[in-house]
Amino acid sequence: MTHYGKTFKHLRKEKGISIASAAAGVVSKSFLSRFERGLSNISFAKMVDLLVNINVSVTEFIYLDAVRNGQLPAFHYEETTDYVDNQQLTHPDSYRRQYYQTGSDHDYLNYLKAKSQARQPLSASQRQFVYDYLFGTETWTHFEGRLFMATLTLFFN
């Protein structure tokens, strides 16, 4: 059995939510009690619904469960850095050439990010592309965060 039930119980109690309120409309109180004690497993869909009842996102829950159980993945700083050196800052067109070779949105966004970091202005259509991408992406990863930070000033011009 997983330890998710114990983490759920901990969060529920920390928030002062009764087992009846947490289970409401999803599972019975007795089932939730068994789940919290590690005696029953639960489907992902029901787990999501229970998390809604206690106002915790799935991402937050998984993170908190990992913290409680000492299972955080190692943090790799190099994965969060922008691999933009002085050569790339003075020649962001290398990203543009790569984009035209691959045609991928990811390469185009890297080109726009490098261009922005080199303090070269983006056209209205390029700014709109960045805007549409960022605000059309429901969940941001490190890439979206770095892209946003690199192009932040674009949204104030």
In words, what does this structure look like?
This protein is mainly α and 157 residues long. It is built from 10 helices and no strands. Helix 1 (4-14) crosses helix 3. The chain is elongated and about 60 Å long. The N and C termini lie far apart (54 Å).
Characterize this entry briefly.
It contains 10 helices and no strands. The protein is mostly helical and 157 residues long.
Descriptive tags:
157 residues; mainly alpha; 10 helices; 61% helix; elongated
Strand content: under 5%
Contiguous uncertain segments of 5+ residues: 76-81
> Kindly state the mean pLDDT as a whole number?
80
User: What radius of gyration results from the CA coordinates?
Assistant: 22 Å
How many helical stretches?
A: 10
Number of strands: 0
The run of helices and strands is HHHHHHHHHH
Largest sheet: none
- Distance N terminus to C terminus? 54 Å
Shape: elongated
Structural class: mainly alpha
Topology diagram in text:
Blueprint: H1 4-14, H2 19-23, H3 29-36, H4 44-53, H5 58-68, H6 86-90, H7 93-102, H8 105-117, H9 124-136, H10 142-151
Helix pairs in contact: 1-3, 7-8
